[in-house]
């Protein structure tokens, strides 16, 4: 495998990883939104933790 093929393979691997992370982030956002709807006080707790 030459250098160019290795770079292409690395780029493809990085893209797949990014797509996976994007999907996971969307899932986290959805879950967080649902939790906040169930318990609005949770948002205040999260913000106080983030401010530290």
UniProtKB/TrEMBL annotation:
GO cellular component term of the entry, any: cytoplasm
Keywords: Chaperone
One of the record's GO molecular function terms: protein folding chaperone
Organism in which the protein naturally occurs: Ambrosia artemisiifolia
Protein name (Swiss-Prot/TrEMBL): Uncharacterized protein
UniProt keyword Chaperone present: yes
């Amino acid at each position: 495998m030459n250098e160019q093929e290795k770079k292409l393979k690395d780029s493809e691997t990085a893209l797949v990883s990014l797509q996976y992370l994007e999907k996971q982030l969307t899932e986290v956002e959805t879950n967080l939104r649902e939790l906040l709807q169930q318990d609005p006080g949770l948002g205040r707790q999260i913000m106080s933790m983030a401010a530290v």
